[in-house]
Amino acid sequence: MEQVSAPTIAPPAVTAVPVVRDVRLLPKAHLHLHFTGSMRPATLLELADKHGVHLPEALGAQALSSGEPPKLRATDERGWFRFQRLYDMARSVLRDEEDIRRLVLETAQDERSEGSAGWRYRSTRPPTPPGWAA
Ligand SMILES: [Zn+2]
Q1: What is the C-alpha separation between 97 and 129, in angstroms, rounded?
Q2: Which has fewest Cβ within 10 Å: 28, 44, 55, 118?
Q3: How close is the Cα of 125 to the center of ligand 1, in Å?
Q4: How far is the CA of 18 from the centre of ligand 1 (A)?
Q5: How far is 1 from 94, CA to CA, in rounded Å?
Q6: How many angstroms separate the Cα of 43 from the Cα of each of 6, 51, 63, 84?
Q7: Which residues touch 37 (CB under 8 Å, ≥6 apart)?
Q8: How far apart are the CA of 32 and the centre of ligand 1, in A?
């Protein structure tokens, strides 16, 4: 009986040069992103003006003129409570459908420009800004 041998397959060539990729060129991944927290500082100021919301100094025009979020100190004993109060103030400027559409659009634009390849929206509850029927 004739023996049949398996064909010989050469292993892939091993390159000695390690592949180093620039992490900034990889797709960006947010596993958890809050819309309010993604709001542009300029949008916060414009929507506060639109709805007549008086923002605290930490969220005012002077504080946000750099385009950066407010600086909070980790050593502040009231750090979380202060953060939550400012966050609630920022959320309070989102009052109508136009505001929500703008926030979602700008978040998508910002994410795209920062390298996000796509996103999925998921919420544990529908967004219900003040004045909206739930
Ligand atoms: Zn969260």
Answers
A1: 9
A2: 118
A3: 13
A4: 38
A5: 83
A6: 67, 12, 14, 19
A7: 87
A8: 6
Number of helices (H) and strands (E), helices first, in the chain?
5, 0
Question: How many CB atoms are located within 10 Å of the residue 57 CB?
Answer: 9
Helix (H) / strand (E) containing 110: helix 97-113
Q: What does the pLDDT look like over 20-60, one tens digit per residue?
A: 888 877 777 777 888 898 999 999 999 999 999 999 887 87
pLDDT at 77: 62
Res. 124: pLDDT tops 60? yes
Q: Determine the distance separating the centroid of ligand 1 and the alpha carbon of 123, expressed in angstroms.
A: 11
For residue 129, the model assigns a pLDDT of: 63
Q: What is the mean pLDDT of residues 16-23?
A: 80
Ligand 1 centroid from CA 12, angstroms: 45
CA of 65 to the centre of ligand 1 (A): 26
CA of 33 to the centre of ligand 1 (A): 7
